[in-house]
Amino acid sequence: MHEIDEDEFGGVWAGISTLLVALVALGVFVFTTDPINSGGVIASVALAIFGLSQTLAPRIVPWFKDLDDRVVGLFWILVGICVAAIAVAASPTIGRFGGGLVIGAAFVLYGCFTALGR
């Protein structure tokens, strides 16, 4: 089995504390602002995903040793599509959404090149 140092990813307690901070921040952005601050909600959800990955990293990391380029490329394509979708959904509150679409397209392009082995 793959040995992993718990300090490398922050460990379970760091992940749980990050999840709690993200939930508190999400509550603040939803309940204390008159129009819901979608930028803050998106940042809170991203922080929650990071906390979840910190918590689950010791169990998930051994799976990544055997992944081929197509799976990694598909992951980056999905990340790019999600970034572009979040940019479009948050555009009325944030203002300009062109940057998010460009970043999403860049991730999709990187995922395509990775899947093709280039």
UniProtKB/TrEMBL annotation:
The lineage of its organism: Archaea, Methanobacteriati, Methanobacteriota, Stenosarchaea group, Halobacteria. The chain crosses the membrane at residues 12-32, 38-61, 73-91, 97-116. Keywords: Membrane, Transmembrane, Transmembrane helix. It comes from the Archaea. This is Uncharacterized protein. It comes from Halarchaeum nitratireducens.
